[in-house]
Amino acid sequence: MAVLEILEFPDPRLRTRAEPVEAVDDSTRELIADMFETMYEAPGIGLAATQVNVHRRLLVMDVSEGATQPMVFINPEYEVLDDELGEYDEGCLSVPGFYETVSRPQRIRVTALDREGESFTTELEGLAAICLQHEVDHLDGKLFVDYLSPLKRQRIRKKLEKDQRRRA
Ligand code: QAP
Ligand code: CO
């Protein structure tokens, strides 16, 4: 297992659209294990493969108290079950230090493959529904800052660019 490097906004690689996972094999399961280690170490509640520079449609999340419910979604597809939007202060491991309010549907139905490559369907609500949509956005090259005003997005970009220059 390994903690992977997380790409940070405005890295252009975060804009890559991920391709479907063709076969769920041992290398996929190794990536999943590394992604969980990376996410729990941060700590975070969700991580998409895009964020660790792997452009395949795979994400991990754990929104439970005490990080006891790891969830894996490979090639996820979701439909919105209830058009009512809810607001949540979202953060992102690729946008460290910033939390901003985003509105999204609160109830979805997701179909995906599990770590054995078996298809499953589940309904998610609340934080789990929000987190899954946030992570699927990553697989499409989208970030939560894209929902903010251009001014807010630019402020975040400038600050993170400065942090990144300081660390380089
Ligand atoms: C996505 O985000 C999410 O700024 C997962 O300094 C978050 O795990 C979906 C984190 C909220 C819905 C609601 C962020 C860790 C973790 C930071 C995360 C930070 C350290 C973010
Ligand atoms: Co994120």
Name some characteristics of this structure.
168 residues; alpha+beta; 5-stranded antiparallel beta sheet; globular; binds 2-phenylethyl (2E)-3-(3,4-dihydroxyphenyl)prop-2-enoate
What topology emerges from the helices and strands here?
Layout: H1 26-41, E1 46-48, E2 58-61, E3 71-90, E4 100-113, E5 119-125, H2 126-139, H3 150-167
Antiparallel strand pairs: 1-2, 2-3, 3-4, 4-5
Bound molecules: 2-phenylethyl (2E)-3-(3,4-dihydroxyphenyl)prop-2-enoate and cobalt (II) ion.
2-phenylethyl (2E)-3-(3,4-dihydroxyphenyl)prop-2-enoate (QAP) is lined by residues 42, 44-46, 88, 90-93, 96-98, 130-131, 134.
Can you characterise this structure?
This protein is of the alpha+beta class. It contains 3 helices and 5 strands, in the order H-E-E-E-E-E-H-H. The mean pLDDT is 98. 2-phenylethyl (2E)-3-(3,4-dihydroxyphenyl)prop-2-enoate binds next to strand 3 and helix 2.
